[in-house]
Amino acid sequence: MPLPLHDRAIDGSSFDLVRLSLLESGAPARVVDALIPERALEPGEQYRFHFDMTKCIGCRSCEIACNEQNGNPYDINWRRVGELEGGAYPDTLRHYLSMGCNHCLDADCVKGCPVEAYIKDPITGIVVHSADACIGCQYCVWNCPYSVPQFNAERGVVGKCDMCKGRLAEGLEPACVNACPEHAIEIEIVSKAAWKADFTAADSPGMPAARHTISTTRITLPPAVAGGELERVDSGQIRAEHPHWSLVFMTTMVQAAVGALVVMLLVHATDTVSLTLLALVTAVALNISVFHLGRPAYAWRALKMWRRSWLSREVLLFGLFFLSIGICTAASWAQTLDLFHGIHVVLLSGWTASIFGVLGTIASAYIYLVPARPSWNMIHTPLDFLLSASLMGVILAPVLDEAAARLEHLAPRDFAHTPIHYSTWPVVVISALWLINQIIRLLRLRGSSLFESRASFALMRGPLLRPAVISSFAFVLLSSVVILTGVWTLGLACAFIAILSARYLFFVSVVPLSMGLSFLRQRHA
Amino acid sequence: MNLAAKTRSILVRAKRFLGIDTLRTKYAYANDPRFGHISESRVADSWVKTTCGYCSVGCGMLIGVKDGKAVAARGNPDHPVNRGKLCPKGLSEHHMLTAPGRATTPLLRKDGVLTPVSWEEAITTMVTRITSIQARHGRGALGVVGTGQLLTEETYTLGKLVQLGFGTSNNDGNTTLCMASAVSGYKLSFGSDGPPGSYEDIETADVILLIGANIADNHPILCERLQRNGRFAQHRTLIVADPRVTKTAMMADIHLPVKPRSDIALLNGIAHILIRDGLIDRAYIDAHTEGFAEFAAFVATFTPEHTSRITGLGVDRIEHVAHLYGNAKAAFIGWTMGVNHSTQGAVTVTAINNLALITGNIGRTGASPFSITGQCNAMGTRETGFTASLPGYRKFENAEDRQALADIWNIDVGRIPTQRGKAYPDIIEAAVTGSIKALWFVATNPAVSFPNYDLLEFAFKNLEFLVVQDGFHPTPTTALADLVLPAAIWGEKEGTYTNSERRISKVNKVVVPPGEARADFDIFLSIAEALGLREELYPGWTTTRDAYKEWQRVSSGRACDYSSISWEQVEREGGVQWGGDRLYTDGRFAFDNGRARLHAVPCEPFAEQPDKEYNFILNTGRTVEHWHTRTKTGAIAMLNGMVPNAWLEMNPIDAAQLKLRSHDRVTVISRRNRVAQVELRITGIVAPGQVFMPFHFPEANSNLVTLGAFDPISREPNFKQCAVRVEKSVSP
Q1: Which of A38, A162, B23, B197 lies 20 to 30 A from B273 at CA?
Q2: What is the 3-state secondary structure (H, E, C) of A157-210?
Q3: Domain B196-371 -> CATH class
Q4: Long-range contacts of B473-476 (CB under 8 A, 24+ apart)
Q5: Which pTM value belongs to this model?
Q6: Minimal Cα–Cα distance from A371 to chain B, Å?
Q7: Is the same domain home to A136 and A202?
Q8: Predicted confidence (pLDDT) at residue B689 exceeds the cutoff of 60
Q9: What pLDDT is recorded for position B731?
Q10: pLDDT tens digits, residue range B475-507?
């Protein structure tokens, strides 16, 4: 990539751009200090930000310049300034972090993206996001330990800092570099291999550990700060995250369908009407999930990256689950209507569906096992998903059976329905396991050494979320009690409420890793 | 809506909902021919050169215009002040020209309700009512408070209108709330106003002492000068005296966490050491100053131990700082509101000047005492203002000065007052006592910015007629007005500003004002017309250029001599400094004998000391994201989003005692009033026993609790210290 800026600055032809140079008074113009590299990249190298904390005065010009450069609305900030504080008066320390994207060597946004909207540019190393390819699933938002990608609801897609690669290509500094009155931000060249071997200069107080993704931003710390005395100032006010209602419902319903199918297959209760109802539940759940996306019309693209993205795998497996359950139901109908005789087709497709369903549930859980979201990144997440599937399954199957029996009375044909007796003990046992899993998770969050995990616990203890915690525990107990008295339908409703509450909590109580931000935060409407 | 349009709109919404449309055009990038790759929405057809309208650093900017709308703001790379850099307010300044909340039509209170009226009715009503009040209560019954936000040409025009047109000398500016102490201090020491140094001195000084100046928040673009200095100077020591660990204090090599209002003791203490150790410039003192013997005798009592007791600084630290200053090749002292916002502001400035004078650190490269001004054109009001002095730094008391002006203006000299009228706080007090019946505020928002709001409210209730001329409506002040005159703002008019370093800079029109809003200049001319005095006061004037031309004649031969500086030159050169790079290079000062005066400045404790009931000292100040009372920056989403509300800083030790937690909502209570629901920030930035809150927020107005105590010389309020207590707020 040509970098003519240097030359233009020297020959003085660059009226258009801010001088990179600092001119000694009286001396002829010469470039003293370029803020972007003066040579082209060689193989094995990439660009990166260098942030000099000793120079930053916290003026936030970089933030404004970034928003102006990218035409972003005020509440989307691809570059953010955070404040750090330490020591006691009068030896107080105040410093600032100004961060865009860290253009990581091992970027989790790239790995997680189901549609390959991210690429790590092979020449510059810039992590580039394509708004056209993006479907707005926001998985990158969950994956990034720095909360760099931000979802633009108006557009339905995510966006992030691209190091102003369009400007770099023209030999201009990125907008933040250009705007900084203190020259605290610059672009440098880094050897990827050398940085991989030693990236200690990427770590700083107020920043999540660089090892997660090998952030390439080099941070120059003031000498007094190396001891790590500085702390972020934004930790006194933890906000609940977005509930993602469509995901709350989708995960709960699909898990219920998977669980019920397995139970039905185990007790040989795969009658046509039950299967039809199950296929319906799955269809509704999968359709709901689409509306989690910023761009529902392009949901199908999510299949693309099944080789590396758990989100793609979830979509693929649940898609196959739906397909198999569809075949299963169709075969069952064919059998009922005497069009086709082959109970083995029903069973084979049924078991295939259940395998895809269980694998899908596991894939679904793996989506949430991301280091950037500590309260999700626990064994309790897959356990919860599987236990929820089991609990809903053992309750939903008998309810479907009951429903089938009633519906079949109305039907003109003989569905050959044989009522099955379902025992209640699995409900009690699985409820207990489900509760134990939830409680252990809470206790582990409370005792965690990670601030974000403890903050999740604090949120759930707080006035905002405590009712949901109580509701999830109470309704799961109530469901067992009701079912022991024989009212399965009401039991299902209780269990559904319990799991929905827990899932809601799961989403809103997560405290993501992020860079330290400012003390005051904007309030969104 | 017809069916086709309805279908189209549903289709558009469906496409947005399904994500088929991602607003690609809105978020597209394009190539700006001048500034390169950028969001297409910021690509301009043309760029207008101008000067920033916020603070008095005076940054040169380019405003990009497309289809008659301001779309982008850039630092002017060739401007000597900022070399292309801008602070966050400047970088978003173009948004101000499309910001909501502008005053667009004259409003007259009818039956208690502000009702839109024509300009003709507005002006006629204003003139009729004011002249009727003056007829009944005397000319002085009108008080006018102007601003450092107007163009120099407009301030000059306003001064003539008020003093010669309405014939009242009760004319002052909101500049009395910020720079009056500097003006008075300069006059006391040097015989004239005028900051002696230049920004360049910050780059070349080897010792820089900043007192009560948080430039990182308030003048961030000046910080670049410090950094540039650090790069090239062998040694550059930055010393920051501030009771709070400000962003600027963090930049310092030495931070002096002085006790509030102990700055005079520090300055006297340094002078004591300098004299004791012979670190003074005897030759300079003998040749260019007077009063040294008395001064030396006075500071003899400020031994390091005594100074240490008052300031809370260690003796070693004071000695070290004094020796740094005394041994400097070129020492620079900068100050802003920490010094000025005081009942002893003017004399504190002379104490600063004393240090510069006894060491000869004035009139040389890098060596200067230097006030860093607040508003974009506070300096212009000082030069042209017909308020505390006569235009062109002339004195009311001087018959020759009056005659000179009468000759230029072709009026009877008897019409020029022989002494200044009431200063801003005295105008308000006169409204309280009833001798002033009508007030006219121009581009200022006293309901937020004036200390002790209760008294101001009382004054307003006492008035017969309140006129507020502003670019925005409603503001807390326009909401109280009987007449609101909608004015054009920065970017909508043409003229000049003068910055802190005496640099006259050109301000240009980027867009037309919204609705019926008019340039302040045109409003003044219409009022003169209604008074029947337009031709006499403003012969043949149609534009601000005419005002500038007359001002050039008025300033000719004065310290602030504009006579040879044309608008075109100012535009071409990125501003021109009147008086050159620095003043007093020859050691000749503006007193008759040419000598500067050394003053003995006693250090008095501040007026309202904390006690058992009001146990905290409240300090007030600003933050980089906002400007003054936020009529402007509050309307810019990005800036307001960064800092959406006020906060109170409190030391962890005090917070623990009060059992308060960060983000708690607290109430700040003084003897006068209370401010509720302020977000608490527990931080080591402030000392135990002190709290700090920003004064930007009408919703949490610090001036409900501040003290109405004023400097006897400059009349500047003591915004910086008052006694308060802090309680947890009850939920709203």
Answers
A1: B197
A2: EEECCCCCHHHHHCCCCCHHHHHCCCCCEEEEEEEHHHHHHCCHHHCCCCCCCH
A3: alpha beta
A4: B473/B101, B473/B102, B473/B103, B473/B104, B473/B107, B474/B101, B475/B445, B475/B447, B475/B448, B475/B629, B475/B631, B475/B698, B476/B445, B476/B447, B476/B448, B476/B629, B476/B698, B476/B701
A5: 0.94
A6: 28
A7: yes
A8: yes
A9: 79
A10: 999 999 999 999 999 999 999 999 999 999 999
> Considering only CA atoms, which of B553, B504, B554, B501 is closest in space to residue B394?
B554
Give the span between the Cα atoms of B124 and B145, in whole angstroms. Answer: 20
CA A255 to chain centre: 19
What pLDDT score does B234 carry? 54
pLDDT of amino acid A407: 79
Percentage of residues of chain B with pLDDT beyond 70:
99
pLDDT for residue A13: 40
pLDDT band, very low/low/confident/very high, at B393 (cuts 50, 70, 90): very high
* Mutation target among A15, A18, A20, A59 for the B interface, most CBs of B within 10 A: A59
Give the residue from chain B lying closest to A19, CA to CA. B77
Kindly report the three-state secondary structure assignment for every residue of A4-46. CHHHHHHHCCCCCCCCCCCCCCCCCCCCCCCCCCCCCCCCCEE
Q: Check whether B58 has a pLDDT greater than 90.
A: yes
Interval B428-442: pLDDT, tens: 999 999 999 999 999
| pLDDT at residue B226, rounded to an integer | 83
Predicted pLDDT of residue A271: 86
What residues does each domain of chain B span? 126-178+384-577, 196-371, 616-728
Containing domain of residue A44, as a range?
A: 35-232
SS3 for B441?
Answer: strand
Least CB–CB distance from B220: residue in A59, A135, A236: A59
The tally of domains found in chain A comes to: 2
The amino acid at residue B294 is E
C-alpha of B292 from chain center? 33
Give contacts of A74 with chain B, Cβ < 8 Å: 637-638, 640-641
Asked if B685 lies within 8 A of A94 by C-beta distance, the reply is yes
Query: How close is the nearest chain B Cα to the Cα of A404, in Å?
Result: 36
For chain A, residues with pLDDT lower than 50 are 1-32, 524-525
Please tell me the predicted confidence (pLDDT) of residue B192.
95
B4: Cβ contacts below 8 Å, ≥ 6 apart: none
Nearest to A63 among B88, B251, B662 (CB): B88
Structure tokens at B516: 């019926």
The secondary structure of residue B472, as a DSSP letter, is: B
Beta bridge partners of B109: B114
Task: Indicate the average pLDDT of chain B.
Answer: 96
CA distance A63 to chain B (A): 8
Same domain, A279 and A205: no
Is residue B233 over pLDDT 80? no
Measured between alpha carbons, how far is A289 from A279 in angstroms, rounded to an integer? 15
Domain B616-728 CATH class label: mainly beta
Q: b/e for B388-417, b at 16 or more Cβ within 10 A?
A: bbbbbbbbbeeeebbebbeeebeeeeeebb
Question: Cβ contact (<8 Å) for A69 and B38?
Answer: yes
In whole angstroms, give the CA distance from residue A128 to residue A113: 12
| Residues in chain A within 8 Å Cβ distance of B688 | 89
Flag if B644 and A522 touch (Cβ within 8 Å): yes
d(C-alpha A227, C-alpha A237), whole Å: 25
Model confidence pLDDT, tens digit, residues B513-530: 999 999 999 999 999 999
User: Taking CB atoms and an 8 Å cutoff, what residues of chain B touch A22?
Assistant: 228, 231
Q: Considering only the beta carbons, identify the residue of A25, A182, A236 that sits closest to B224.
A: A182
**CATH number belonging to the domain at B126-178+384-577, selected among 3.40.50.740, 3.40.50.300, 3.30.1490.20, 3.40.228.10:** 3.40.50.740
